[in-house]
Every structure is written in structure tokens, then in C-alpha cells.
Specification:
Radius of gyration: 20 Å
CATH topology: ABC transporter involved in vitamin B12 uptake, BtuC
Shape: globular
Strand order of the largest sheet: 1-4
Number of strands: 4
Distance between the termini: 32 Å
Order of helices and strands: HHHHHHEHEEHHHHEHHH
Structural class: mainly alpha
CATH architecture: Orthogonal Bundle
Number of helices: 14
Largest sheet: 2 strands, antiparallel
Number of domains: 1
């Protein structure tokens, strides 16, 4: 009897935390019934590739949401990081892999500045990161007089275009590895537990001896790191750094995280669920494109989904209180 109760409890917990997986399956069945092209291998591969870049950014956004923060500059941080890497690689002829590392470090620096302005100066994260969004955009435009740097060194193409065992895209493997590491950190380490405690009740966390400001700053830096990694994947796949790279990623990442059950109020959410949330969003709009839905209508849906998901989360939070 106890075993049955335990199994039932685990099933209920999984259903609650990963309901987005069930929603994704239902969505895929529905779109396939409307257009069989959806299940073509080439289309499914395209969905996975699109998911990987946004989902990596969503890792950082999910962490920030769990700690009660957010970052609206992540998309433009991806753009700036990619441009920095491409500039060092092609304009200054620095080694391709070192150039990618420099781009990631710049993205982390952007995250550090966001964290310092938010936690030390006390500027609300919405205002801080909105301003940083414009700063990143302006810096990317200042780097080069053109809007694109291309082509890039061939050796980096393995990140965005390579395959493991000629089957699974390297970028998808990278995404899964990063999610696994992040999920382990959040569930099995003291640092992860601290983040949930900070998001749930920052004052209680402070009085418990947790350095709330330090961990919040680190969260922004980690989010910057993931933006930099996403930029590496993106420019290697496109073989170029474009001023439009990463545009809107901050909102797509937020949609994925919230759809995956990460609470906007902080302290709740499963990391892997954010990945499935992004996959749901990408699959939905991929299906809408196959069905020739007007792109402007898709934008309306995108905003509507974010508002709906955040509304549901807000209602759940009120009911929990």
C-alpha cells in the first residue's frame, strides 16, 4: 500500500512538474494531423536545431526567474557576443577558438554589470537589463560599419553544423549536457538550494547566512555565460555574425521557462522543464509556418502565450498563498 502511494505521489509530482511534456506530445499529434510534413526527419531536425540556441539562453533566464530576477538583455547579449567573436576571428585574425572564448567572456561581463547594477546599486532588474539591451545593441553596431561579418573560420562549424555519430547535432548534445549539469547543480548542490531559497524568501535566506547579493550577481554572470555559448552555436551554424542574431531570444527564453513551470515570483521550477517549454514554443510556431499562418499572427500568438503562461503562474502563486 505504501509502495502504491509512493508511486502515485511520484507520478503526480512528475505530471505537475513536467506537464509541458504531455502538452508537447499533444501539440505534435495535432500538427501532424493537420500537416504530415511536420514529422519529416528534416523538419524535426530543424526544430531541434532552433530549440538548442534558444534553450541554452533559457537556462540563464530560468535561473534568474528562480532567484526572483530576469534579464531582458540576453538576446542582444547573444548578438554582441557573436559579433565580438567574429570580429576577433576575422578582422583581427585571432585564433577561432580563442575568439569564441573572448565572446563568452564579454557576455559574462555584461551579466556581471547587470548583476552589480541590480544588487549593489539597487536598480530594478527590468530597468537595468532593458537599458543594457540598448547598450549591447549599440556596441554591436559600433564594432563594424557593416551589419554582417562573414564568412567565419571553417573549424568552428562543428559546433553549429556538426553531428555526433552522423546522427545527433552537436548543438543538441551540447544543450542536453548543459541542462544536465545545471539540473544537477540546482538539485544536488548547496548552491542550487541557495538559489531556490533566495527566490522563495530572500529575507529568510539572508538571515540564514546566505550571501543573497553575491548569489544574485553570480546568477546574472551565469546567464551571461549561457548567452555567450548560444552565440557560439548560432554564428557557427549561420557562418556569420549578423546584427539580427539573437533578437527576441530573451522573450522566447522567458516563454520557454514560464511554459516549463518556472515561477516568475521565484523559488520554483525545474530546469529541464524549461527546455521542453522552449521546444513546445518552437514546435508550435514551426507548425504555424507549415500551415501558412501569417507571421504577424504568429507574433500575436507569441505575446499571447507569454501573457497566458505568466497569468496562470500568477494565479497559482496567489492560490498557494
Amino acid at each position: 500500500m505504501k509502495i502504491d502511494t509512493k508511486i502515485g505521489s511520484k507520478v503526480k509530482s512528475f505530471t505537475r512538474d513536467y506537464s509541458i511534456v504531455l502538452a508537447l506530445i499533444v501539440l505534435m499529434i495535432a500538427i501532424t494531423m493537420a500537416d504530415s510534413r511536420f514529422l519529416r526527419v528534416s523538419n524535426l531536425m530543424n526544430i531541434l536545431l532552433q530549440t538548442s540556441t534558444v534553450a541554452i539562453v533559457a537556462l540563464g533566464q530560468a535561473l534568474l526567474l528562480i532567484t526572483g530576477q530576469l534579464d531582458l538583455s540576453l538576446g542582444q547579449n547573444v548578438c554582441l557576443s557573436g559579433f565580438i567573436s567574429a570580429y576577433f576571428m576575422e578582422m583581427l585574425e585571432l585564433g577561432p577558438w580563442l575568439s569564441l572564448v573572448i565572446g563568452i567572456l564579454v557576455a559574462m561581463l555584461v551579466g556581471l554589470i547587470n548583476g552589480l547594477l541590480t544588487t549593489i546599486i539597487g536598480i530594478p532588474p527590468f530597468i537595468t537589463t532593458l537599458g543594457m539591451q540598448l547598450v549591447c545593441q549599440g556596441c554591436a553596431k559600433l564594432i563594424t560599419s557593416t551589419k554582417t561579418i562573414a564568412p567565419l573560420d571553417k573549424s568552428i562549424k562543428v559546433i553549429g553544423r556538426g553531428f555526433v555519430f552522423d546522427t545527433i547535432p552537436v548543438s543538441v548534445v551540447l544543450m542536453i549536457v548543459l541542462y544536465a549539469l545545471m539540473a544537477f547543480m540546482m538539485k544536488r548542490t548547496r548552491m542550487g538550494r541557495y538559489y531556490y531559497e533566495i527566490g522563495g524568501n530572500p529575507e529568510a535566506a539572508y538571515f540564514a547566512g546566505i550571501n543573497v547579493k553575491l548569489y544574485r550577481i553570480l546568477a546574472f554572470v551565469i546567464a551571461g555565460f549561457f548567452a555567450g555559448v548560444s552565440a557560439c552555436v548560432l554564428i557557427s551554424r549561420l557562418d556569420s555574425a549578423n546584427i539580427a542574431n539573437g533578437t527576441g531570444y530573451e522573450f522566447e527564453a522567458m516563454i520557454g521557462a514560464v511554459l516549463g513551470g518556472v515561477s516568475q515570483s521565484g523559488g520554483k521550477g525545474k530546469i529541464f522543464a524549461a527546455m521542453f517549454g522552449v521546444m513546445f514554443s518552437v514546435a508550435l510556431f514551426n507548425g504555424m509556418t507549415l500551415l501558412n499562418v501569417n507571421p504577424f499572427v504568429q507574433d500575436v500568438f507569441k505575446g499571447g502565450i507569454l501573457l497566458f503562461a505568466m497569468g496562470v503562474d500568477a494565479i497559482r502563486t496567489k492560490q498557494a498563498v
